[in-house]
Design a protein that fits this description.
With 241 residues, the protein is α/β, with parallel strands linked by helices. The protein folds into 2 domains: 121 residues, HPT domain (Four Helix Bundle (Hemerythrin (Met), subunit A), Up-down Bundle); 106 residues, Transcription Regulator spoIIAA (2-Layer Sandwich). Helices cover 59% and strands 11% of the residues. The strands form 2 sheets. The protein has a 5-stranded mixed sheet with strand order 1-2-4-6-7. Strand 6, helix 9 and strand 7 form a beta-alpha-beta unit.
Length: 241
């Protein structure tokens, strides 16, 4: 193993054992709208990740991206960015993206630039559409019902708003007890842990499957351990077999 390889292995060991647990704590606080406290917790691991990736060969894009996320969090902490749900959702999504980015760089030496470009544009306020712009976007859910299964498609690009969660909750309450449920995330870009927690609350009453999650949703889903309660399927067909 070369010196560079040894440094990478040591870094990822620190990420898994030390930094990521701190980040999960910070994200949890943001999710609970404890903004200042959450950013304080996040600042320590993110600052270290930014510094270390800055001098690790091939990981420089992670350092640059982390710096931009840090700047957004500092603005939020200073009150320059609103503490409303769309801004909190973007903060959480951005932090999760840092870890997806460094994993991509580790596995292939490359990364999904469209993913980071999208986040960076929204951090800079270029994209004005938060996914919550009008009443038609607050509750964008479609339900396909058959004898044995209800398929709920999440149409919102980002699922964090309390009204969205209330809408999902109401639909789940109305599903007959003998039915299976499939949640299709194919059109959604990201979702908060609160949505998966809501779905998990119904897992004792129904067999619930999840499909169509992108990397953002997948990161949140597995980071919080929701695979204990909800099953992930490659497609609708694999669930319906």
């Amino acid at each position: 193993m070369s010196e560079d390889d040894s440094l990478v292995e040591e870094f990822f060991s620190e990420v898994n054992d030390k930094y990521y647990p701190q980040v999960l704590e910070g994200i949890d606080l943001l999710d609970e709208q404890c903004i200042e406290e959450g950013i304080d917790v996040l600042s320590r691991p993110l600052h270290t990740i930014k510094g270390v990736t800055g001098f690790m060969s091939g990981f420089e894009p992670a350092s640059t991206f982390t710096h931009k996320v840090e700047s957004y969090l500092k603005k939020m902490q200073a009150g320059e960015v609103d503490h409303k749900l769309p801004q909190i959702a973007l903060a959480i999504e951005s932090v999760n993206t840092i870890f997806m980015l460094i994993e991509q760089l580790r596995e292939s030496g490359d990364f999904d630039k469209s993913m980071t470009d999208d986040i960076e544009a929204r951090l800079q306020g270029i994209e004005k559409d938060s996914g919550l712009g009008g009443s038609e976007n607050i509750i964008p859910i479609e339900v396909e019902s058959s004898t044995d299964v209800d398929i709920i498609t999440i149409m919102a690009r980002r699922m964090y708003h309390p009204e969205q969660l209330k809408a999902v909750d109401q639909i789940l309450k109305n599903v007959a007890s003998n039915k299976k449920i499939l949640i299709d995330f194919g059109l959604s870009m990201s979702a908060g842990s609160s949505l998966f927690e809501l779905l998990a609350n119904y897992s004792d009453e129904h067999e619930i499957g999840i499909t169509g999650m992108n990397s953002h949703c997948t990161s949140t889903f597995y980071s919080w351990g929701f695979q204990k309660y909800l099953s992930v399927f490659d497609s609708r067909d694999s669930f319906l077999k």
